[in-house]
Amino acid sequence: MDDIGHASFTLWDKECSEILGKSAARLRREVMEKTGDPNHFPEEIEAVIEKKGLFKVQVKNKPEGCSYNGTSSFGVLSMFRDPAILAMYKSNEGETMEFDELEDK
C-alpha cells in the first residue's frame, strides 16, 4: 500500500474468471487481437471499477535483505460480492472497518 492508501491487487486466472467471466489469458488474447497494444486497459476491467467487493488477499513479509522499496502488490485469493457477506464487514455507519476489527468477525 502506498502513502495515500492505494494498493495493487493481482488477480490470477481463477479470480479473473470469477469476476470478469473469462480467464486472464483469454482477456489478454482478446485485447491483443482488438488493439495490438499490450498496455491497453480492457473494457471488462472498466466494468468492475467502483463495484463493491471484499477481497481475501495474501500478504507476505518482504524477504530478508530485499532492497526493493516500491509499492506492494497483494495476491487475491478470493473475492466476495454477496451483499449478505459484505454487510457482515460494514460498521453501523457504513464505513470501512479497520483490519483488526475484521479479524474478530
Automatic annotation (TrEMBL):
This is Replication factor A C-terminal domain-containing protein. It comes from Cuscuta europaea.
